[in-house]
Amino acid sequence: MQNWLGSTALIDAARNGHAEIVKILLDAEANGDIQDCCGSTTLIDAANDGHAEIVKMLLDAKADVGRQSLWGDTALNMAESRGHTEIVEILKAKGDVTRGRAGGY
User: Fold this and answer.
1) Given CB 3.0 to 4.6 Å as the disulfide criterion, which of 6, 35, 38, 100 pairs with 74?
2) pTM (2 decimals)?
3) What is the mean pLDDT of the chain?
4) Pick from 56, 48, 46: which is nearest to 12 by CA?
5) What's CA 47's distance to the chain center, in Å?
């Protein structure tokens, strides 16, 4: 279920670094590819906020690494723009990633 901003329990847990809650929700088959009102996904937010463990969980759950926000941002370019090098390497190791626009939000 999404709130009026399009956020879900999974998106909120990922944004705030609550890996245990993310795992519970993914195990319950929560959709990690739902986009909020800005087109951001759980993976984009986790990458932006530097939550490497959550990024790995989302990728294991088959999150769409190429999904773009309304502004063309992807998980990869958000991690790059924030200097989250571990996440950049995790995403690049996944293979088929989209760079998106430069600079992030």
Assistant:
1) 100
2) 0.86
3) 87
4) 46
5) 5
